[in-house]
Specification:
heterodimer, A: two-stranded antiparallel ribbon, 50% helix, B: 145 residues, alpha+beta, two-stranded antiparallel sheet
């Protein structure tokens, strides 16, 4: 772990999660919009390089009679899942920052 | 900022559902209204939703355009139900026609109530999304401590 690169990948993962949160919020807001198709963010295979993840139409979801394909239970699950992943990632990032602070203080303060 | 955008999107959903609930309560309140400024009985109203991008700066819009845009929701139209009114035989009524029939709005309280429940549940879903985003923002701020 180099000092300069600390948390870069975690940071990119956090950006991906907030982008996904935005898409989920959009799906929930449009749960009653005729013709709206549920969207999702394609998960990048690795976070070692900065890249903008693509927003795609969520595959395999049946449409209702009004052409809307939002499944509110699916969105609720994704919302909960996304929050948990975000919390976990910030916890890891915090502990990395704490390690660095400890190194700066020569291990005296925790 | 992505997370603040998510709050705006959920807020647009709350706004749209609130307008829908307002129209439903208006329909219920006017279920027996036989006189309107336009003449004739009250006509049922319904909110038509359409997805719409958020108001944003040009640069933001451009970057979202290239990456695919998460959209908010807006009430694009308030549709008026022009179906035939319900005719009830009330000869003494001041609005009765020569045959003694009065035109009443065609409003089904049961279907209006079901619509109202659906609007209220969708509103709650948007509130849940906002509180989850708020939690995420609080966690991000905690990184500074």
């Amino acid at each position: 772990m180099s000092l300069a690169g600390t948390g870069l990948e975690l940071g990119r993962f956090l950006s991906y999660l907030s982008q996904r949160q935005e898409v989920i919020a959009s799906n929930i807001a449009n749960a009653d919009t005729p013709g709206y198709k549920a969207r999702d963010v394609a998960e990048p295979s690795d976070f070692s390089t900065a890249l903008q993840a693509a927003v795609v139409e969520a595959p395999g979801l049946p449409s209702r009679n009004d052409g809307n394909s939002v499944n509110i239970d699916r969105e609720a699950r994704l919302l909960a899942e996304n929050t948990i992943r975000f919390n976990l990632t910030t916890q890891i990032l915090r502990s990395q920052l704490k390690d660095i602070r400890s190194a700066i203080d020569e291990g005296r303060a925790s | 900022m992505s997370l603040f955008n998510a709050i705006s999107i959920s807020a647009s959903g709350m706004d749209a559902q609130r307008i829908r609930a307002e129209l439903i309560t208006e329909n219920l309140a006017n279920a027996d209204t036989t006189r309107t400024p336009e003449g004739g009985p009250y006509q049922r109203k319904d909110a038509i939703f359409s997805s719409a991008p958020l108001q944003a700066s040009f640069a933001q819009t451009l970057s979202e355009f290239t990456a695919g845009t998460p959209e908010g929701v807006t009430v694009s139209q308030i549709a008026v139900d022009n179906s035939e009114p319900e005719r009830r035989y009330l000869p003494g009524h001041p609005d009765a026609d020569p045959d003694g029939y009065v035109a009443f709005p065609k409003i089904d309280p049961a279907s209006e109530m079901v619509d109202l429940m659906s609007a209220s549940r969708s509103y709650q879903a948007n509130v849940a999304a906002i509180s989850s985003v708020k939690d995420m923002i609080a966690r991000s701020i905690d990184l500074l401590r």
